[in-house]
Amino acid sequence: MKYVIIVKPKKTILDPQGKTIKNVAERYLQSEIKSIRVGKYFEVELENEDNELVNKLAKNVLSNEVIEDFEVLKQ
Fold first, then answer.
1. Which strands sit side by side in the sheet containing 40-45, from one edge to the other?
2. 16-70 residue pLDDT tens
3. What is the total count of domains within the chain?
4. For residue 10, how many other CB atoms are within 10 A of its CB?
5. Domain of 51: which CATH number?
6. Which domain holds residue 20?
7. How far is the C-alpha of 25 from the C-alpha of 29, rounded, in Å?
8. Backbone torsion region of residue 58, taken as left when φ is above 0, otherwise alpha when ψ lies between -120 and 50, otherwise beta
9. Relative to the CA of 55, which of 2, 37, 48, 63 has its CA 20 to 30 Å away?
10. Which whole-number Å values give the CA distances from 24 to 1, 2, 29, 48, in the listed order?
């Protein structure tokens, strides 16, 4: 079973990397962009379906729950 885990900074947390990319993109495109947020993308493949294990991995290993949110998607 394949899973995708997306980790992003919480909306209340500043994202300096996203802000820098936004500024560069606006200059390059000569157009305003409302926002860009930078996150992490993980692909996890297991022999068997195990939603609990993948959520535990996302929460305790791949993200910092104080400053990040995560989303788990089955593929």
1. 40-45, 2-9, 68-74
2. 999 999 999 999 999 999 999 999 999 999 999 999 999 999 999 999 999 999 9
3. 1
4. 13
5. 3.30.1280.10
6. 2-74
7. 6
8. alpha
9. 37
10. 38, 34, 9, 43
Distance of alpha carbon 68 from the chain centroid: 8
The closest alpha carbon to 62, from 10, 6, 2, 9, belongs to 6
Give the tens place of pLDDT for each residue, 12-26: 999 999 999 999 999
17-54 as b/e: b if 16+ CB within 10 A: ebeeebeeeeeeeeeeeeebeebeebebeeeeeeeeeb
Tokens of 2: 């394949």
Global pTM?
0.86
